[in-house]
Amino acid sequence: MHDDGSLVLDRLTRYYKRVRALDRLSMSVGPGELFGFVGGNGAGKTTAMRIVLGVLAADSGTVSWQGRPLDLPTRRRIGYMPEERGLYPKMGVREQLEHLARLHGIDPPGARRRADHWVERFGLTGRARDEVNNLSLGNQQRVQLAAALVHDPVLLVLDEPFSGLDPEAVDMMSGVLRERAAEGVPVLFSSHQLELVEQLCDRVGIIKEGALIDEGDVDGLRDRGPRRYAVRVDAEGADEGAWLSGVAGARAAGTADGALLVELPDGADDQDLLRAALSAGPVRSFAPHRPRLAELYREAVEPSRDAAETEGPAPERNAA
Ligand SMILES: Nc1ncnc2c1ncn2[C@@H]1O[C@H](COP(=O)(O)OP(=O)(O)OP(=O)(O)O)[C@@H](O)[C@H]1O
Q: N or C: which end of the chain has fewer CB within 10 A?
């Protein structure tokens, strides 16, 4: 495993009474890497993040950074956005950020400067004196992210930072995370918004029942999947792939955007597939299929399902 500045989770296991929330979860986030942590409700993301923060202990396994176990002084330098947002509801926005910076050991002028910087950066200048309680949920979330950033963290661990944000705030949040990563900070965040994760992340980890079932950059995840072509042909039974019978090993694997998805075995010639399609009728489109992260995700968590059933919106917060 890395000892080069990576955040490394090594075989973390955690039970809540008899519920096994984490099952030897291992993963790492490199310096400057944006790592998207995805998984269904109850998969174990929050538990893992809370263990990284040290607010929850693992039953076994370790968390290390720069090759050393994470100790308390380092944990204080993590920027954390908890799932259950933790701000002082009655305190003003700027005052709150300043206070949090002070709690992390920053001197008063530095705390003031950083609070001002993040208030402005998140478009909260007009709200700087408002109590957090009186802000919209999206604005509360901007403050929450500012709170995670106000002490110049060396690691960022963010539990669903994008949930409930409007598109403008999503862009702002994405920009800030990219910037932090560009400074060399490892950024770990969870999200159910798979399109966003696909756009933003260098690497993605898919967690199911407390264990990492797949990880890599999205292209890498694609390459490990089956080889598929999306074919549109005007022929009788085209949607069911009746014309496929002449192509050795080819299998209909559902549809995507109105095209038939055809799975080809390794070594099969795609030109044989094209010729078979042409002999069935006029071919309107023929291309290698590039699955979206949402499709890769569904196939990883439910491997028995066909691509046909994997179409549809990305799972949102309340998806099972
Ligand atoms: N305080 C707790 N007491 C008992 N069980 C818990 C507790 N916190 C979490 N669990 C259980 O541990 C498992 C993992 O939950 P966790 O909150 O880590 O998942 P998650 O991936 O963050 O889910 P979500 O996407 O819904 O936020 C679930 O089965 C959950 O019910």
A: C
Q: How far is CA 123 from CA 120, 212, 311, in A?
A: 5, 37, 37
Please identify, in words, the CATH class of the domain defined by 226-290: alpha beta
Residue nearest atom 6 of ligand 1, based on CA coordinates = 16
What is the structure's pLDDT at 137?
86
Closest C-alpha to ligand 1, atom 7 = 16
Q: Do 24 and 11 meet the contact criterion of CB atoms below 8 Å apart?
A: yes
Torsion of CA 51, 169, 178, 190, to 10 degrees: 30
| Pairing state between β 227-233 and 68-69 | unpaired
Give residue ranges with CB within 6 A of ligand 1. 16, 19, 21, 39, 41-47, 83
pTM value is: 0.86
Q: Distance between terminal CA atoms of the chain?
A: 33
Burial of 28 (0-12, 13-18, 19+ CB in 10 A): buried
107-155: pLDDT as tens digits: 999 999 999 999 999 999 999 999 998 999 889 989 999 999 999 999 9
Q: What is the CA radius of gyration of the chain?
A: 23
CATH of domain 7-216: 3.40.50.300
Q: Which amino acid is located at 37 in the chain?
A: F
Residue 211 Cα to ligand 1 midpoint, Å, equals 13
Q: So what's the ipTM on this one?
A: 0.97
Atom of ligand 1 nearest to the CA of 207: 21
What DSSP line would sit under 279-306, residue for residue?
Answer: HHS-EEEEEE----HHHHHHHHHSTTS-
Ligand 1 atom 28: residue of nearest CA: 42
